[in-house]
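Q: I have 85 residues here and want to know how they pack in 3D. Can you give me a structure?
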Amino acid sequence: MDSGRFGVVTTGPYGFVRHPNYVAVFVELVALPLIHTAWLTALASAATQVLILARRISVEEGVLLSHAEYRATMGRKARFVPGLF
């Protein structure tokens, strides 16, 4: 499949941040244990996810930023929270 024909998505949440799915995953993995007041599970889950996502995003961004269209379109957008990072 020729992935180059699709281009960079800039609508919806991608209009604000580069990785909206990772934000959703992180919030979900912290929120679900908190629903059942499992504070330690929420903390452990958050810490584990930060480590996993940091590595994964670093690798993915290296590949994505090597493409001029992605770099021009998304290079200045926040990774997760607009205006924070």
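Q: Anything worth noting?
A: The mean pLDDT is 82. Residues 65 and 72 are 9 Å apart (CA to CA).
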